[in-house]
Design a protein that fits this description.
With 415 residues, the chain is an alpha/beta fold. It has 17 helices and 13 strands.
Length: 415
Amino acid sequence: MENVLGLRCLHCGKEYPAKAGIFTCEVCGQKAGILDVEYDYGKIKRSTSRESLARVKDPSIFRYLPFLPIRPETPRPHLRVGGSPLYRPPGLGRALGLGKLYVKDDGQNPTASLKDRASVIAVIKAVEEKATTVACSSTGNAASSLAGSAAAMGIPSYIFVPARAPQGKIAQLLVFGAHVISVQGNYEDTFRLSSQAIERWGWYNRNAAVNPYLVEGKKTVALEIAEQLNWQVPDWVVLSVGDGCTIAGVWKGFRDLYNVGWIDRLPKLAGIQSTGCSPLADAFLENRPWQPAEENTLADSIAVGVPRNPDKALRAVRESGGTMAAVSDGEILAAMRLLGATAGVFGEPAGVTGVAGLKRLSAAGVIKEEDTVVAIVTGNGLKDVKNAIAAVGEPLKVEPSLEALIPKLAKEGWR
């Protein structure tokens, strides 16, 4: 916390000290008064450098400790969060007509999603604020990540999920020992009930759209991308968007690096939603205020009809000079197949929505063949096997004999 100056409201600019219990602006209220963590970039520049970072052996997000709002001495979960691989799959690049395409596979985090980056910060802040219980609402990934980090830290967790949450994610929650409440309603209902319960029992609030510190965990994916590319900034970073916290975090990470002089330019951001739930993409493309949307998509992790961080998300895309797009569930399933078959990366529907949007933007000429592009896969496909099977179909079934196998293979054109 030594490099943190305080908190500032994105709406009215009012400043607050970085003290326990201060999450949103008292003037603007919870919905509009999202706070942002402010850093002393001069102090960071004096205390660390790219060269000193290269000597840090820790591969996790804590290698970037000067850019994080936590105390160095605070206990941390033993889980390795961050350090996910950045691939350059030639087959996927050829399929999309892109010569310099990278895939950041954040499904390799401990609970198999990018949300681990935020949740590990949440449990550390909970310890710093002497909270004994943590809680959140989630469509799935934030829930499982919080449950996992809380279990590793030895803190009880209460998790609120909408009824549609996939069984794979529910299984994770229960295995991690969380108290799971399945709310028979949509994400907005789930968020509202979790907020009421958090206030009633005084639990530490991990909801990313309320807690300003969680974006700081998510931004580490941008710090890793820059370091893995030897501080050469890509032209585009493409990723899925739900409530807007992740894309806001990516932008914050690159801005942090720019402010300390570690990179000399900023990338454009492309935020991708599903046409079944695209309040932010529609608002951006139609240049109007966002409006609530139905939650009608198989990409459950980004099915957020009432996004809680719309201002941060839209501001990030606009400031970057980037764009947004909405793709159909069919395009998302096709992206699951394409990513797996050409890159060997298994992403869940929400995790590959960015790749589906990248295909659309590349075909339209918005993203050009010569551009350097990073597509972030935000979650692993094992979280939603039902939709993975829907994407690729059933296996070939055959009796246990070569005589039965030969005609089956011939019929499929496999041999």
